[in-house]
Amino acid sequence: MPEHLSTLQLAGAAVLTLAGVAWAIVVVRLLRRFRAAALREVPAARRLTFLPPQPKAGPALEKVELTPAEKDAFAGLIRRLGDH
User: Fold this and answer.
1) Residues 6 or more apart in contact with residue 53 via CB below 8 angstroms
2) Alpha carbon distance 12, 75 (integer Å)
3) Does the predicted model carry a pTM greater than 0.90?
4) Do residues 1 and 10 lie in contact, with contact meaning Cβ atoms separated by under 8 Å?
5) Percent of the chain's residues with pLDDT above 90
6) What is 6-73 written as a DSSP string?
């Protein structure tokens, strides 16, 4: 037992630690229960009927060819940044 702490301080720390552990256990159990209940509910397709259908694919890929001067400038920039 540390000399600079009173018995009341040690008891308070123990009580707070136990309360924190109990709180964490309760939160984990509640999250598990609600997650299990949510999985048993209505399928996801019927839950958000007010949202418009989302596209299945993303936007088209864009690509730009660099000129030789731009490639050299970029290579120089990378060399300069690599030194730091």
Assistant:
1) none
2) 62
3) no
4) yes
5) 46
6) -HHHHHHHHHHHHHHHHHHHHHHHHHHHHHHHHHHSS-HHHHTTTSPPPPSS-PPP---PPPHHHHHH
